[in-house]
Write a structure and sequence with these properties.
Elements (H helix, E strand, L loop, with lengths): L1 H20 L17 E5 L5 H14 L1 E5 L7 H22 L3 H25 L1 H9 L8 E6 L4 E9 L5 E10 L4 E4 L2
Parallel strand pairs: 1-2
Antiparallel strand pairs: 3-4, 4-5, 5-6
Helix pairs in contact: 2-4
Amino acid sequence: MIRSFLFLLMITVVFACKEENNRVVSLNKENTPLQDTYFTVLGYGYPDVTRQELTYGVSEKWRIKNIDVAGCEVTQKLIDSVATENAKTFAAIEKKYGKNWKEKYEQDILNFEIKRREVVGLLNVSPLFRVQLKACNMKINEANKEIKQLKSEIYEVVVYSYDKDFKKNNCCTLRVDTKNRTVNLIQ
């Protein structure tokens, strides 16, 4: 009985992977930004979590979202379709931001890493942040933070943790102004 179940499970996994491998990526006809007015840059392979956090942080400013598309394996067909879609997207981004947009984007990502540390430092010394953590029954080292740059010196921070069942529990959303060194509660 157990062998039969394991055999069926292996067959299901093999066919599920094969179906995804034959997939060709296409966003829409013109490859214009999707309905939410973000440009979509596709990626594949093993995710770089640090890079994902940094690109998320500047996504609001640049209106660029990075989405990983891949099944169990990455095929040449998938690589080619991602390259084709990204070429169209990069052309649209270049039209909006200019020829040297990639250098500016990468520089913003590097700057965001530095600013992110400044934001976390401001949060850690903020009495408001500590009150919110206490209200959510969180210790400072248990709080996860999604940080997004809204303007040059303005950042939105969503503070959350996970419970024992790995369910995400949002604590609060804060706005941090690094120029004025203030922390305000949004919700």
